[in-house]
Amino acid sequence: MNVSVYEHEVKALLSEAGVPVPRGVVIHERDFTAAGELAEPLVLKAFGPGLVHKSDAGAVALGLRAADLPAAAAEMRSRLPDVAGFLVEEQADAGVELIVGVVRDVAFGPVLLAGLGGVWTEALRDTALGLCPVSERDARRMLDSLRGSPLLYGLRGAPPVDMDALVKLLMTVGGPGGLWERLELGEFELNPVIAGPAGVVAVDARYVPAESGETSPAVRPGTADFLPLFEPRAVAVVGASTTRPNFGNMFLDFYKTAGIPLVAVHPEADEVAGVRAVPSLAHADVDYALVAVPADRCPDVVRQAAGVSFVQVMSGGFAEADRAGLEDELVEAARAAGTRLLGPNCMGVYCPRGRQTFVGGGLGPAGSVALISQSGGLAGEVIKVGERRGLAFSRVVTVGNAADVTPAELLRWLAKDPETRAVGLYLEDPRDGRELYEALRATDLPVVLLVGGRSGQGQQAAASHTGGMVSDRRIWETVAEQAGAALVSSQDDLIGVLAFFQAHGSRVTEGDGVLVVGPSGGASVLAADAFDASGVRLDPLPADVPAELRGLGVAASGNPLEVPVGPLGRAGLVPEVIDAIVRRRPCRDVVAHVNVQAFFTYGNAAEPLYAYTRALAGAQGVLPHTRVTLVTRNGECAPAGVEDEVRRIAAAAGIPVYRTMEAAAVAVAAGGRHGAA
Question: Quick check: pTM over 0.85?
Answer without folding.
Answer: yes
